[in-house]
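pinned: reference chain
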Amino acid sequence: MTDQWMLKGAEYTNCNCAWGCPCQFNSPTTYGHCEAVAATAIAEGHYGDTRLDGLNFVLLLYWPGEIADGNGKMQVIIDERANEAQFEAIRKISHGESTAPGATHYYVFNSTMTEVLEPIRSAIDLNIDVEARKGNLSAPGLVDSSGSPIVDPNSGEEFVAMIQLPNGFEYHTAYMGNASSKVTAGISMDLNDSYGQFNVLHMNQDGVLG
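pinned: its structure tokens
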């Protein structure tokens, strides 16, 4: 029996691919491997009777080749403000548990993992403005990441671009941006001026809701 859950909030992601990220179009990665930081600020959420409103969490993801080839490694950082029930709820959701097979990116990503590291409890300072294409993430001693709009080199103006995936398993619409991250947790990353993604996250155990 799948437990009932729902998350609604904002998501900010930085991966090592070029702007636009070919993975969004079922194409090979830019550099032949994938490493990514995905941060979520939950505005409203629950897992069964456990409320998750106002909590943050961060997924750290690494694949040595293409995602579909597997052999990945992942770790989740969970808001230190979470009580034990909330911590376990976020762990289950982010690890693709209590989810219909293939219905969410959490499930799909977890299905490609060879190594799932123990979750970390940490303070998480996270601010995301989806339409402004801005994100700032800090988990002290673990992750520092910042995202911003792409700037048109010809006009010097901010460049607005979106990806729409009506049947997507993570979002239906995402704004594109530029981002950089430094990660020194169980997975290490050093990403500079690469793919930034800003989107509303609204899903439950059966997939994207909006």
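why pinned: Residues 84-94 form the longest helix (11 residues). The two ends are 24 Å apart (CA to CA).
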